[in-house]
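Sequence in, structure out. Go.
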Amino acid sequence: MRTARAQGRGVIVLAGEDQNDCEILAALIRAHRPDLGTAAKLVRINDPVRLRRKSGPDLAAAVKVLVGKARAKALQQRAPLLGFVVHEDLDGYTDARYDRIRRTLAAEFARQCQELRTALALAAWESEGWLLLFPDAFPHVRPRWKVPDRLIDKDTGRVKDAKEELKRGLGLPVFRESDGPEVARKALQHRLIPSPRGTNRSYEDFVGDLAEWN
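Output:
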């Protein structure tokens, strides 16, 4: 990821399903926490996150591994660990299931990370649903792209399979998952992130977690 040198400034560790998701998170963190995101180095651990179906001892063990790797990454960077952000696509709406998963994961991270800032990016349906909040960023990536009106100013947490909607609706060239980070970077560059168009409770919950970092 494109980050400033952060020797002695601290690191924020990202864990997600893949590199694309983590790069999207990096842009969002820089927008919402410029006090941390500008100075800190944002680094990724490579383990894919698979927490949503876990509970009890299985969840505790999986979280322990992720937290341990985040701490190890900070030691490797020789810098304090300023925060740990965990992403997972939920492949579902912001409904009772979402509430249950978020409540369960938040409680486990709070139990294991009492002295560590954490944030959960549990995207409904997926990261692309969050990108729909910034429709004006897409033409900055591909001039011919236009997000269909039916997807603008909506509750994007209710859009099933936003990735496929973008593939069908943007026009040519066809949207690819690897385009997501550049959309997020353009949203950051053009200062679109502070004024999302539409809503998505899973996104708002993530932003709320970041706001609580002090």
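Check: The chain has a mean pLDDT of 93. The first strand starts at residue 11 and ends at 15.
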